[in-house]
Predict the 3D structure of the following.
Amino acid sequence: MNLSINTDRLDGIAVVHVGGDLDVYTVPRLKEALEGAADSGENLILDLSQVHFIDSTALSVLVTAYQQSQCAGGSFRLVVDDPYLLKILCITGFDGLFPIYSQVNEAVSG
């Protein structure tokens, strides 16, 4: 149940770095971290490079943050380099919804 969430800014973009597992127990913290940036219309990058497990509740939070960002005029990008997470995103079809990058610097310039 360990989860770390840190937010910083790169080139005017909010970057939320997450480490640990994203599941029904930890997802409320992720949701709280994403809501402010998504609602404000900021461009947002969610760095999941230190996440190795994600469940359906977390996927739902990602979709909600994406929708909030789009409605507020911002963008929402994911950084994922774990093959397991990439497979989940492909199976669910979310790889066609979210722009996915393998590194934060690629997502910033993307």
In short: The longest strand covers residues 44-54.
